[in-house]
Amino acid sequence: MFKNVAIETDRLILRNFTYEDKNEFYSITRDTKLYETLPEDHMYSMDEISEIIDWFISQYDNNSLKNIPKFPLAIILKEGNKLIGNIGIGHYSNDKLKMEIFYFINSKYWNQGYISEAVDVFLKYVKENDLATSLIGVVVSHNIASIKILLKNGFVKIDCKDSHNRNIYELKIKE
Q1: What domains are defined for the chain?
Q2: With the C-alpha atoms ordered 131, 56, 13, 150, is the resulting torsion angle positive or negative?
Q3: pLDDT tens digits for 57-108?
Q4: 21-to-74, 126, 136, 147, 159 alpha-carbon distances in Å
Q5: Is the pTM of this model over 0.90?
Q6: H-type alpha helices, 29-75
Q7: pLDDT tens-digit readout, 134-151
Q8: For residue 143, which phi and psi values (nearest 5 degrees)?
């Protein structure tokens, strides 16, 4: 369920990260426009990206249905077999009872429906495999595109903002 994942759409493949993804993922994280939409406050070095990818890969063995610290997938554009972003779920603010969805793609691929497509198929995978009873989505308040994606997929705004001026949304999968 966490290893050897390959979720396909007409244009995308969502799959496990591999060590070979480090350079492409690093390249994506050099995209300055990306940081306007993310809560991250700095660009990562190649060493940091290498550590992140290593940690992502280790999580595929560590995850279980009762505990999913992080389940990240690479978003691959079928045309050209190009890594364009990532999507996944993981603990929300170190709370093992709450799961957060996360995603981003390189700004070169914005406004083409790729992230909507990825979120839609990934949420189906989460539901079909009972990976969460609800999901939290955290979005910087000016990221209107991401807010629209969450709302389109059934998330509702929770009446609060966190300390970083991010809106909090929730999708209840099971009561």
Answers
A1: 6-137 (3.40.630.30)
A2: positive
A3: 999 998 888 888 899 999 999 999 999 999 999 988 766 667 999 999 999 9
A4: 8, 23, 27, 28, 38
A5: yes
A6: 46-62
A7: 999 999 888 899 999 999
A8: -90, 75
Exposure string for 70-97, b = 16+ CB within 10 A, e = fewer: bbbbbbbbeeeeebbbbbbbbbbeeeee
DSSP H or E stretch at residue 7: strand 6-8
Residues 6+ apart with CB under 8 A from 152: 116
In a 13 Å sphere around the CA of 136, the CA atoms on its Cβ side amount to 20
Report which residue type is found at 152.
Answer: K
Give one word for 22, left, alpha or beta, with left for phi > 0 and alpha for psi -120 to 50: alpha
> What tokens appear for 59 in the block?
């999580």
